[in-house]
Amino acid sequence: MAVLIDPENSSLLRATPRLMQILRVLARHKFLGALRGKKYLPSPKEVRETFEELGLMFLKFGQVLAMRRDLLPDAYIEELEQLHDQLPAMGINTVRATIDAELGAPVAELFASFNETPIAAATIAQVHEATMKDGRRVAVKVQRPGLEKMISTDIAALTYLVALGEKLFPRLRALDLPVVVSEFAKSLSRETDFSHEARSIALFRAALADVPDLWIPEVVAECSGETVLTMEFSAGERVDLYAERHPEAMPKAISTLVRLMLQTIFEEGLFHADPHPGNVLVLPDGRLSLLDFGMTGELDEPMRESLTLLLEAVVKGDARAATEAYLEMVSGSEKVNRAGLLVDIKAVIYEIHRIDLADVSIGNAFDSLLRAGSRHGVHNPGEFFLLTRAFVILESMIRQLDPHHSYMDSFREEIARLTKMHFSVERIKDKTTKLARDLERLLNDSPNDARRALRRIAEGNIGRVQLPAVEALGGSINRNLKRLTDAIAAAALLVGGSMLVNAPPDSGWHHYFGQALIAVGLVATVLVGIAALRGDQGRGRGRR
Fold it and tell me: What angle do CA 119, 122, 126 make, to 5 degrees?
C-alpha cells in the first residue's frame, strides 16, 4: 500500500518516543553543540554517521538533502552522497506473506520457481528472481512491511525537529526546510506505490519504443500490485563493469543514454531521476537495459517550453532571457529579488562561457541556477532538484564509462535531432490542428460563458450593479472576446508561417507557404489593431 503522509497533520504524541530517540542520537553526534554558535556545528562526517545510525527513513532523507546543493556547503553534500541504503534482507517467510496478501495467492501457485536469496535489498524493497508458469524469467520486487507506520512516525519527528530548529536558529528559515520535508514525504509516497512505478515503466516503454539500442523490461500485470512488482528479468551486466572489458562500445552506449534522457524530458515530460550504473545494464546482444523506475520526475508542457528557452538563453549568453525563462518555471516569483537574481545568473553564464565547451556540465549549470534562485527568494519545485540530480548522475556515469568522450557533442547531436523532429511537417500539422480545435472551442464557449458570468453578477447583486451597466459590461466582454480570438488567429498564422519557414529545407514548398502564412498573419494583425482603435475612438465620442 502506498504510504500517504501529511506532515502538517502528523501526531506529536505518536512521534514523541521516536523524537526522544532522535534527540539522544543528535546529542551523541554533537548536533546540540550548535546551540553555542556556528563554529560548534557538527562535522560533515558526524552528520553522515548520524543519518546512518537513525536508520531507514533518515538514510533516504540524507540522500534527498544530498541533492540540495543550494542549501548546504559542498563538504556536507559530498559526505551525504556517500550514504548507502543497503539493509539486511527480509526473511523468506515475510516475503511470501507479502506476496500472498497482495496478489491473493501463495508463491507456489503464482510462480514455477522462486529464488529465496534476494538479488538486492534496499530501504523500500528487495528483489528476487523467479520463473513464471509459462517459462518467462522474471524479477519480483517485494516491499518491506510496516513502512507506513515507520515513515509517518519519522516524517512527524522530522517536522517537529525542523520547527524546533527554525525557532532556535532563525537563519534556517531561509532554507525552506519544511518544504524539503514535505517534498520528501511526497517522494516517499510515490516510491512506495509500486502501481505508480508500473505506470511509469509503461510510459517510458512507449516514449522510448523507437530507440533501437534500448530495452526496458515489461511489467507482468497479473503478478503486480501496490507492494509487489513483477517484471521481465534483465539478464545483463552492469554498464560500468562492461565498459572495463569493452571500451570500444562506450561511444554508442553514451549516445543512447543521452538520447533516452533528453527525448523523455522534451518529448514526454518524463525523466529517470536515478540513472546510475547499477540501473543500467548491457544485454548479451549489446543493447542497454534501463531499470528501477521508483524515482522519476515529470515536467508539464509549459515547464518544458520554459526549460527549452532557458537552455537556449544560456547557450546564447543572454542572462536577461535566462532569468525570465527561469522565473516562468517557478511559482510565487513576484517576491523574488529580480535584480540580484539577474546579477547572479550573469555570473553563472559567464562561468559557463569562459570554460571549454567539452568541460561544461549541464547538471552543475542547473545547480548554480538553483543556488542563485534560492539566494534571492525563489522557491524551486522539487522536480528541479530531481532533474539536476539526474543530469549530475548521468554526467558522472558518462565520465566513468569513457573519460575522453565529449558529452556535449552527444548533447548537441540529440538536441539537433529533436529540433528537426519538432519542425517536421507532421508535427506542425498536429500543432495546427490542436490550435484550430482550441480556437473553435473558445469561439463556441465564449458567448455562453459571458452570459453565465453576467447572470451571476446580476443575481448576486454584486456592488448593486444596475442593468444598463451590466449590459454595457456584456457588450464590452463580447467585443474583447472577439478581439482576443481574432488576435489569436492572427498569431497562429504568424507562428505557423515562421515554423514552416524555419523547417529543414527538404521541400521547397515549406518556405513559400510559410511566407504566405506570415503575410496573411501580418495583414490580420493590422486589421485587428485598426478595429480596436476605431472601437476605442467610438466609445470615446459616445462618452463625450
Answer: 45
